[in-house]
Amino acid sequence: MHQATMKRLTQEELETNTQILTEFVALFTVKNHSELMKLFHPKGRYFNIPARATLDGYFYEVLKTRYGVSQHFCMGVNHGYTADHMPGHHVVEFRFMDFDFDSHPEADPTKNLAKSLGEPGDDDLKELIYRYAITFKDGKIFTLRHPKRFIADLEYFNLSN
Asked: Is 121 helix (H, G, I), strand (E, B) or coil?
């Protein structure tokens, strides 16, 4: 008979994963492609493809080309958890805007620049939003995917349990 068990993280694993997540956020916001690629596990699964070369090409396109975030300013990072077919994975949401000194968004006091997780992008700011669900293994990022559904905190699951 098969018995289902849950693997619990040790305190050391939790601290390592938190550090890797912090580094991922910092390197993505400053658009450092070469250092970002060092955070990924060589045998990981990225966007449901077990090939790291695909990940390298994806991040180069997102971070370095004019169609990505190379000309945009990171105005916010939000964290949450997946609530899709693979629940509980950490979600990171990056919000980039086209920063123009002539038409700065702070000129309009009715605009709310601090958006929460999952809010739609603002067309006036030409906002780009990237969301990633992340898992860790051996002190590296092991899986990376785009989450289908996500929530800001696990309070609903804690109350349901």
From this structure: coil
